[in-house]
Design goal:
single chain; alpha+beta; Helicase, Ruva Protein, domain 3; 3-stranded antiparallel sheet; 8 strands
């Protein structure tokens, strides 16, 4: 099967593997991107990969959590260039949209006033302007948020009790670590099976009992890459996020109930 250069480029961007390795992996898997990524992992060309497009539209993210930590809004507003994203009109529209979502909910995107304001800004800047993803959290737990200094990645977390410092630390961890799941229990069975099969294939030359031991060890390491509570804590990589939350000075261990990560331009 002939693989076009654009597909090879996309696989290279997703994995960081060499051009030839990407080409061969795609040829062996009939052009299937996910299967090609798995093959590259089995062959050791890459360690692991997030299935995400690295290209990002321009725009801004806005995040706000109410003082009591029970309600939060996270919005994305897109445009075509970084220049327009920095204009006063665009920034003010993003601020307005954030407050409206926090007050009215996600349905505000379908309201005529929202459409009118977006069209006005688009007309003044000469670029297509569009609301991206918006989220409104209204929770019984305590919500904390973190917007990265580059303004392109943000996170919300819900804890079982109020602790602003721990909440911000965990939200920052979500932004930096980009976990897929909360903990091992939340990983779907099909994902576990697929990962374990890859690990077994990576040690296919070893006897079966050893192969299973190796696979189990690799799975533990993989959890530290994909599960929030198993990630190495950013301020002390010798402990996990779970261990950090277990060392709270008062009130016992804090539990993370939910988290959300948003990167500008991701689908």
């Amino acid at each position: 099967m002939k693989i076009d250069s654009e597909t090879i480029k996309k696989l290279r961007e997703k994995t960081g593997a060499g051009i030839l390795d990407c080409k061969q992996a795609l040829e062996k898997t009939g052009g299937d991107m996910d299967k090609a990524i798995d093959r590259l992992r089995v062959e050791g060309s890459i360690r692991a990969a997030k299935r995400q497009d690295r290209e990002a539209r321009e725009g801004v993210l806005r995040l706000k959590v109410t003082a009591e930590g029970r309600r939060a809004a996270l919005v994305e507003l897109n445009c075509e260039t970084d220049f327009v994203s920095r204009t006063r009109e665009f920034q003010e529209l993003a601020d307005w949209l954030l407050e409206e979502v926090l007050r009215e909910g996600e349905g505000v995107l379908r309201q005529p006033e929202t459409e009118r304001r977006i069209k006005e800004v688009s007309g003044r800047t000469g670029e297509k302007t569009a609301a991206g993803r918006v989220f409104l959290w209204d929770r019984r737990g305590f919500i904390a948020g973190y917007l990265h200094h580059n303004g392109r990645v943000a996170a919300l977390v819900e804890l079982d009790r109020a602790d602003p410092e721990a909440g911000r630390e965990v939200a920052m961890q979500v932004v930096v670590g980009n976990p897929d799941h909360l903990d091992e229990k939340s990983v779907p069975a099909e994902v576990v099976d697929r990962e374990m099969e890859i690990f077994r294939l990576q040690s296919a030359d070893k006897p079966e009992p050893i192969r299973e031991k190796v696979a189990a060890g690799k799975w533990r390491k993989r959890l530290a890459e994909i599960c929030l509570l198993d990630l190495p804590y950013i301020r002390d990589p010798k402990i996990s996020v779970r261990e950090y939350l277990g060392k709270m000075p008062a009130g016992g261990a804090i539990q993370v109930k939910d988290f959300l990560r948003l990167r500008l331009g991701d689908e």
